[in-house]
């Protein structure tokens, strides 16, 4: 708890203009189990209140995530922690727009020679980390219109919702004006402890990830098909539209799919556990369950943490 408190508002906050901060405490709100726990703990006074709470919106989250976010925003607003939604655009639309710079999504690729590959994952960095960092630079007083250079001496501590079972995912920030901190690790709370803490307060949290994310596991696809058919239809339409890769740039030599079977989503075996999946290694469990938390800005478990 001391470590958490040390990362909080005890930092000196001089030398900043009104509305800016010399030392800024920020919560990166992915709206999953862990970051929701941090936000509500701060709202209850169990953690210091962040100066800035940022949600990076890809524009393509399931309706349940936006509903959860709206409820959370109401509570955090009342607690004096308004959520700022930031965005680099609508990922779905941008991926299909030939006029838009290519946003690389980690599609499952069947190469022309029949081999398998995976597209590069740049979407998390471009649509989540980048708008969050821009808002932080802006709040630290980087000059408009591009908010690139943070004035000397100004820093942000960014709370990231990795829990105690995820200590191996901790990484330093890549930028000098941000220091990462992990309040749930400091508090010794693992993912289940967060879930129980939320349960006791009547919060259930949907997985936050883009509707057509290729890291979705079979269980996620089935749930979408059975409980949110309009969203599943959207994912099927998107899948059909990306068969030859992005809308811009060199056409893909091979075919792209959102399902790991590298079949069109409406034909993919989402009801069947493969033999490999039954063996139950962690990788195979990911195939069935997908990323347990979905895609948080700093840690999509299915790929390398950004
Ligand atoms: S949820 Fe998937 S598609 Fe969306 S930003 Fe994260 S990795 Fe990319």
Secondary structure category: alpha/beta
| Model regions low in confidence, pLDDT < 50 over at least 5 residues | 1-12, 301-306
Mean pLDDT, as a whole number? 86
Distinct helical segment count: 11
The arrangement of helices and strands along the chain is HEHEHEHEEHEEHHHHEHHEE
- Number of E strands: 10
The CA-CA distance between the termini, in Å, is 26 Å
Rg from C-alpha positions? 20 Å
Outline: globular
Features:
globular, three-stranded antiparallel sheet, disordered N terminus, binds iron/sulfur cluster, disordered C terminus, 11 helices
Walk me through what this model shows:
Helix content is 34%, strand content 13%. It has 306 residues and is α/β, with parallel strands linked by helices. The strands form 3 sheets. The protein has a 5-stranded parallel β-sheet. A 3-stranded antiparallel β-sheet has the order 5-4-8, with no helix packed on it. A two-stranded antiparallel sheet has the order 9-10. It is globular, with a radius of gyration of 20 Å. The two termini are 26 Å apart. The model is unreliable at 1-12 and 301-306 (pLDDT under 50). The protein binds iron/sulfur cluster. Residues 58, 91, 105, 121, 123-124, 127, 209-210, 213, 215, 295, 300 line the site of iron/sulfur cluster.
């Amino acid at each position: 708890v001391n470590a958490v408190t040390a990362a909080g508002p005890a930092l000196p906050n001089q030398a900043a203009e009104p509305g800016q901060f010399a030392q800024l405490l920020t919560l990166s709100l992915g709206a999953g189990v862990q970051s929701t726990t941090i936000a509500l703990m701060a709202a209850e006074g169990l953690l210091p209140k962040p100066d800035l709470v940022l949600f990076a919106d890809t524009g393509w989250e399931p309706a349940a995530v936006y509903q959860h976010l709206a409820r959370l925003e109401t509570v955090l607003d009342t607690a004096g922690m308004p959520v700022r939604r930031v965005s680099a655009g609508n990922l779905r639309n941008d991926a299909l727009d030939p006029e838009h710079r290519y946003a690389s999504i980690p599609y499952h690729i069947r190469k022309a020679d029949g081999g398998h590959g995976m597209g590069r994952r740049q979407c998390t960095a471009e649509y989540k980390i980048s708008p969050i960092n821009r808002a932080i630079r802006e709040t630290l007083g980087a000059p408009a219109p591009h908010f690139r250079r943070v004035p000397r001496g100004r820093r942000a501590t960014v709370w990231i919702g990795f829990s105690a079972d995820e200590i191996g995912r901790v990484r330093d920030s890549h930028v000098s004006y941000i220091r990462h901190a992990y309040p749930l690790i400091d508090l010794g709370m693992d993912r289940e402890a967060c879930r129980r803490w939320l349960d006791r307060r009547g919060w259930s949290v949907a997985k936050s990830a883009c509707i057509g994310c290729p890291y979705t596991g079979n269980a996620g696809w089935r749930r979408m098909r059975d409980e949110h058919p309009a969203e599943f239809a959207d994912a099927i339409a998107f899948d059909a539209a990306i068969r030859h890769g992005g809308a811009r740039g060199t056409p893909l030599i091979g075919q792209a799919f959102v399902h790991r079977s590298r079949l069109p989503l409406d034909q993919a075996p989402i009801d069947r556990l493969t033999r490999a999946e039954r063996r139950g290694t962690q990788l195979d469990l990911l195939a069935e369950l997908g990323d347990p938390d979905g895609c948080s800005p700093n840690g999509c478990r299915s790929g390398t943490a950004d």
